[in-house]
């Protein structure tokens, strides 16, 4: 019973850490990265569709991305969706066949804004991991009559260690992203 609760919490915390890393990847650095557009939704015939399903994204140069839609009628919608991305500061150009996105140079002030944004995303991920811990702790406490006090204490220590390991994983990813953002 306790092992099931701990295993479930571990799996959910792993997913939270992976989601945080993916979220960090959507914050741009000095170079163009196709992952920046990972979560972009394009209004395609009235339904929000992920950009990756509508077009191929290539990175021919350090600061340029080429987005080639599979359906040319989606060009304007893709261009508008990219223009509407907050905190990116790009102006895509459409030549009738593809959308070209050139990333502007990051100023020191803009880099610091991105670091703040990433720290906020990191804190949100940590709060999520702690919420998973809280639910698992409640599930363990519900087993009070079925298992002994020693088992409950051991399970709680394991849960704390699991939580600490996942929070440290988020902190490590956060430090790497901050270093990447501040690198000139």
From TrEMBL:
Domain of life from the UniProt record: Bacteria
InterPro entries xref list: Ribosome_recyc_fac, Ribosome_recyc_fac_dom, RRF_sf
Pfam name, any one: RRF
Compartment(s) of residence: Cytoplasm
Family, as annotated: Belongs to the RRF family.
Role of this protein: Responsible for the release of ribosomes from messenger RNA at the termination of protein biosynthesis. May increase the efficiency of translation by recycling ribosomes from one round of translation to another.
PANTHER family reported for this sequence: MITOCHONDRIAL RIBOSOME RECYCLING FACTOR PSEUDO 1, RIBOSOME RECYCLING FACTOR
Protein name: Ribosome-recycling factor
